[in-house]
Hints:
alpha/beta
Amino acid sequence: MPESRTAERLPALLIVGALALASIVIATLGVTPARVTAQELLGAARGPGEAAFIAGHRGGTTMAPENTLPAVRSALEGGFDYVEVDLALTSDGHAVLMHDATVSRTTNGAGRVADLTLAQVRELDAGSWFSPAFAGTRVPTSDELLDLVADLHGRAILDLKGTWTAAAATTLVDAIGARGLERSIAVASFDARTLAYIEARSSVISRLVILKKLPADVVDAAVQVGARGIVVDRRALTARPEVVDDLHDAGLRVIVYTLNTDKQWHAVTGLGVDGIVTDDPGTLDTWQRALASR
């Protein structure tokens, strides 16, 4: 999920405008209404105090280098509900696991992902920065990620970074379908057009709209892009807690990012959110178990 410093540069007006644009894209592409409910993948709506599902942020970054196969494997083998990862497009249109616009923070390389070919990205070391034990770890492709999710019978939330093309969205949807993961994968994005491309190819794969700020009518905004829920900043949600009930009443789900302290977990659990994205899924799991035993 996005860093706050990045998301803060996306004004609420642009989010609302993008959501409005989606209705035009969906109509142009001839998309039919979704035939799958939020409950099928994201579970029943939670009530205040009920444990939310846990999504390991970028694979769960306390265990292995973020957005790498070791991190994904660690999270899924740890029994957590979901792994959340970021997918960005290379200059030749391939999807790789990378959060930042550049590769400099999490690899030994430099430059924008969008300016590098897949071959160039695959040459990079994505593990040494985290620990010598992970030296030589490569930046995974979306196919490698999906293969691992399928092998481990896991579930994933894919945060599509930037604006995707129709061709790239089609390739991703077809890869998800080829592995029988349509009901195990949720696709999330800030960009309404990207979500429309996903929906145009599949009415089964769940879509989530990521919001740093909440539009006036958040339910209508989600419905406009065919989303089955929102992924929202904690501060925006706690400023308008009634939104949780509004979304639940509409059959939609609420996921909050990226929370790493018991104070934050307590605040959103009290609101009845459905999912929590965290860098420390193990500690959150322990916290939830302790809460349930009281």
